[in-house]
Amino acid sequence: MIQTRRALFLGFFIIFTFSTRAQTVTEFNGIDRHYQTCLDKGSNMLNCFQGYYYQMDSLLNVVYNNLRHPLNLLEKAALKKEQLNWLARRDAYFKEVDTALAAENKDGFAGSDSRMIAFDDKARFVRKRVEELLIKLAESQKHQSK
């Protein structure tokens, strides 16, 4: 299972890394469609939730780097500051999610539903940031093409 997740993560990372600046909302939404298709199968659903989170996290890094690449030093510094602020908010939110999961696990076993909800909450938080960065990337590419 861990090897499957790693292979999925690595494959996804490679695909998006080599499609530099080709990130589109259509591709982004493709992840959501894949996620929903996985859930619709009704089996191994925890893996669907985990995979979705890892895909969003991988895409976040790729989109951030694609956005950062053509910027000048001042713009890079501003983007980095913005991202560090977001990372602080993410860490605080993830701590809340983990605390809620731990509270449900006080008897030593959190059900699969609780773990799925935790992964989904984290993935949706990251997804929102990916969406924000994709919008910035599209705007940046539009200005570069002028």
TrEMBL record:
In what residue span(s) does the Lysozyme inhibitor LprI-like N-terminal domain sit?
44-133
Identify one Pfam family in the record.
LprI
State the UniProt keywords alphabetically.
Signal
Does Kinase appear among the keywords? no
Q: Which N-terminal residues, if any, form the signal peptide?
A: 1-22
| Superkingdom | Bacteria
Matches recorded under InterPro entries: LprI-like_N
**Name listed for the protein in its UniProt record:** DUF1311 domain-containing protein
Give the lineage. Answer: Bacteria, Pseudomonadati, Bacteroidota, Cytophagia, Cytophagales
